[in-house]
Design goal:
The protein has about 350 residues and is of the alpha/beta class. It contains 11 helices and 10 strands.
Length: about 350
């Protein structure tokens, strides 16, 4: 199996086109009072909600490379989004495009969040001046790529008008996985500084973040148990399909940096914490969100990170974090969605 030193991995990533957007490295912080309530010696949070651009989040790291690719191709329009009106991805696609001088065209799926006044992520996306195109398809977000054909039609329309569009169907993409290896590099250095060799690393992700953290751990030779927590209920075949899809994407990401992919489908450990529905938090998740706020002033959102932390809390309480491993929660952002949930608590 190929292993790289941190400088070797960093050098490989620097060879890819990149446009600077993120405030990094993001901090690794202690959650001492939450750890006390959960009766564990230590609990850490990697603050990728603090990447800076337009309220931050994990997508900023990925968009450095997506935007870099767009600029390298001479594009002048960035077509992205594809999610619900409260999409963090849509917000950050619009912000990254604006920062790079590209015009953002953002696709959003119709649903309850498309009605009424703009709040949360949708408000920020509109403030950024993005041209929003609405797609009346798959509002429950069962299919990440349901908007692909619609995006292709938009690209053809833009090309006919003399524009040069860059189309990003989803952040679940080999280049996004490669970009997020920077988080794995930072986390490795920060855990080394604390003298921590064994960790259980958990993120709200059944996609690029999980694949990147697992790939990074293997490439750097780190002893990390990596678990991805879903923010939407698994479809019937997700438990079998997703690991194979992510293995293929991780292999493509490894190829981008010139190494052979070391992962298999059996390496992926995905947790279904998506109930009752995408965008809707359970009472247990709201309890965990409140617990994190009142113990260590850590704010989570009900769509993504609240569900991820609920998964980690459950793992700790049921003994799924082995003795000797330090739990690390990767906070991937999403806080604007918290302000679109009026009346839910």
């Amino acid at each position: 199996m190929t292993t790289l030193t941190p400088p070797e991995l960093a050098a490989a990533l620097e060879r890819l086109p990149r446009f600077p957007l993120a405030a990094t490295p993001t901090p690794l912080e202690e959650l001492p009072r939450l750890a006390g309530e959960l009766n564990v010696p230590r609990l850490l949070v990697k603050r990728d909600d603090l990447t800076g651009l337009a309220f931050g989040g994990n997508k900023v790291r990925m968009l450095e490379y997506f935007v870099g690719d767009a600029l390298a191709q001479g594009c002048d329009v960035f077509v992205g989004g594809g999610g619900a009106a409260q999409s963090n991805h849509a917000r950050l696609c619009a912000a990254a495009a604006r920062r790079a001088g590209l015009d953002p065209v953002i696709v959003m799926r119709t649903g309850t969040e498309s009605a009424g006044d703009a709040t949360g992520n949708r408000l920020v996306t509109e403030l950024l001046g993005a041209e929003i195109r609405w797609l009346d398809k798959d509002p429950e977000m069962r299919d990440r790529f349901a908007a692909s054909t619609f995006m292709d039609e938009l690209a053809a329309e833009l090309e006919a008008a003399g524009r040069r569009p860059y189309v990003l169907y989803s952040s679940v993409h080999a280049l996004g996985i490669a970009a997020y290896l920077w988080c794995a590099l930072e986390l490795a250095a920060q855990l080394d500084a604390l003298g921590i060799e064994k960790a259980t690393v958990v993120a709200t992700s059944e996609g690029s973040v999980t694949a990147a953290l697992l790939l990074g751990a293997r490439l750097l030779g780190r002893d990390w148990q990596v678990r991805g927590v879903s923010c939407r209920p698994f479809a019937e075949d997700d438990a079998e399909r997703l690991p194979h899809q992510l293995t293929e994407l991780a292999e493509q990401a490894a190829e981008l940096i010139g190494v052979k992919g070391p992962l298999t489908a059996a390496d992926f450990d995905l947790v279904d914490e998506g109930a009752p529905a995408y965008g809707t938090a359970s009472e247990e998740t709201w309890h965990v969100i409140s617990q994190c706020a009142r113990t260590d002033a850590l704010l989570l959102d009900p769509v993504y990170t609240g569900k991820g932390m609920t998964g980690l809390v459950r793992m700790i309480r049921t003994g799924q974090v082995p003795d000797g491993r330090t739990p690390v929660f990767v906070h991937t952002g999403g806080l604007p969605a918290l302000f679109a949930r009026r009346g839910t608590r």
